[in-house]
Amino acid sequence: MTLLLRVAYDGTDFHGFARQEGTRTVQGVLETALAELYQGPLRTRAASRTDAGVHALGQLVGFEPTLPIPERGVVLGLTSKLPRDVGVLGAWACSLPDGRAVDPRFFNDGKTYRYRIRCTPHRVPTTDRGEWHLARRLDVAAMQAAAAAFVGEHDFAGFRASQCQAQTTVRTMLAVEVAAAAAEEPPGLSTVAAPDSPAIVTVTVRGEAFLQNMVRIMVGTLVEVGLGQRPPTQIADLLARPDRRRAGRTAPPQGLTLVEVHWPEPWPPADWESRSRKPEDDPRVSVASP
């Protein structure tokens, strides 16, 4: 039997999710807390190994428990042992008919990421760790027109890091949405913010699988559209003729959050036998940040 944890974290002070000797990582901190709770070492498996500086609200982590601690007790016990920048929101037992351990990387139904951009000239310390302070006006309508081209099945070879080792670069995006949002601070407090310009712009991406740095490169390219540096129609050409040198910059990691790893309901899914492995996900946001 596998126990699944829904994990949230502020990635600012971590060198990514994946365990690294001598380095503070989310997985390392989580496994230390689990070892205290279960009175012995435990190994975990995550749906996404996010990069340094990337955050999560709905990461999924699985492990095989060695003591019969109730699910509520696991959540409360870990809450008392984890540092303030990691939290466990929920826990539930999960098993397969053939008794295999459940790996959240290969049995999930995709992931949703959100990228947050602050356009105001001023910074806000309470939100700064989770956003890219661009400090420039963006044309949201142009970005929305460009984002539509990403939806569907495409070759994203031009939207991955040079060190990405995925065997196939074809990915399916289910939704790519750009939206303007009001800032948390009440209107009128800032004397430098433009009242007719969105304070915050978010890019929300849902897909079945991702390449390394893929979402951040998509966002960097969309920002160039929003700044008027490339036309919205160019996205289709970048997908048709993949070349990393032609796409936009890689947006900084702090604006990216893994919002949710989608889990099949009901469980197990009808195709559970064929889900032992999916087409290769990036080994580090499914297991590096897209």
Termini separation (Å)?
30 Å
Give the structural class: alpha+beta
Alpha plus pi helix count: 6
Helix content: 10-25%
Indicate the low-confidence ranges by residue numbers.
Answer: 279-287
Average pLDDT taken over every residue: 93
Succession of helices and strands: EHEEHEHEEHEEEHHE
Strand content: 15-25%
Shape: globular
Oligomer state of the chains in this structure: single chain
* Main sheet specs: 10 strands, mixed
DSSP strand count: 10
- Using the CA coordinates, give the radius of gyration: 20 Å
Textual characterization of the structure:
This protein is an alpha+beta fold and 290 residues long. 19% of the residues lie in helices and 23% in strands. It contains six helices and ten strands, in the order E-H-E-E-H-E-H-E-E-H-E-E-E-H-H-E. Strands 1, 2, 3, 4, 5, 6, 7, 8, 9 and 10 form a ten-stranded mixed sheet that branches. Strand 2 (45-46) and strand 3 form a beta hairpin. It is globular, with a radius of gyration of 20 Å.
